[in-house]
Design goal:
- This protein has 184 residues and is an alpha+beta fold.
- Helix content is 35%, strand content 9%.
- The protein is built from 3 helices and 6 strands; from the N terminus they run ααββαββββ.
- The strands form 3 sheets. The protein has a two-stranded antiparallel ribbon. The protein has a two-stranded parallel sheet with strand order 3-6. The protein has a two-stranded antiparallel sheet with strand order 4-5.
- Among the domains are: 34 residues, no CATH class; 28 residues, no CATH class.
Length: 184
């Protein structure tokens, strides 16, 4: 039903279309050719990689008697870290060392089985030491008192002559120690 003088919407090609008017064959042909092109390109690139690998293998296997240039020769052992020929990365090496030290500090074991000397984890050793207390030495006449330098001595202390190094002065952390004879 149409108004007089205006065509119906079915006959107007711009308003709607019929399903019979759509041609999908070119769309399917395009998709088919696109898929075939992608597969062909994949096999072409795969073949180029295989050919290149075979060529590199053949070049590497060729024996020549020409000496290698210095840039291709490895330096003698020991090599610096990160130098060509160094087997392990320095960060990995550091972490391996840290882990081995941590395992040693946290493990039980014998140091000397004959004397019964054992190693125990640090935390356990601290607990045992706090429970038992610190070992102290009884102060008597035979044990000399600890010499503490005075403020005005600039770090110098006086010691008995029998503790002196023969033929010179006794040095403590770079400073000379005044030596006096016994009984002075």
């Amino acid at each position: 039903m149409s108004i007089k003088g205006t065509p119906s919407h079915q006959s107007d090609p711009q308003s709607k279309h019929d399903a019979d008017e759509v041609n999908v064959r070119p769309v399917y042909q395009f998709l088919l050719w696109l898929g075939l092109f992608v597969v062909a390109t994949y096999f072409l690139v795969w073949g180029i990689f295989k050919w290149n690998d075979a060529r590199i293998k053949q070049v590497n296997e060729a024996v020549n008697h020409i000496a290698k240039p210095k840039t291709e020769q490895l330096p003698p052992e020991p090599r610096l870290q990160l130098a060509p020929g160094h087997a392990i990365h320095p960060l990995d090496e550091g972490m391996n060392y840290r882990d081995s030290v941590a395992r040693a500090l946290e493990s039980f074991g014998f140091i000397n089985r004959d004397s019964g000397l054992v190693k125990i984890p640090i935390d356990l050793a601290k607990e045992i030491l706090l429970k038992r207390g610190f070992a102290t030495r009884a102060m008597n006449q035979a044990t000399p008192a600890v010499m503490i330098p005075e403020f005005s001595s600039s770090g110098r202390t006086e010691i008995a002559r029998d503790q002196r190094i023969p033929g010179g002065t006794y040095t403590v952390t770079g400073g000379n120690v005044n030596v006096r004879e016994k009984g002075e």
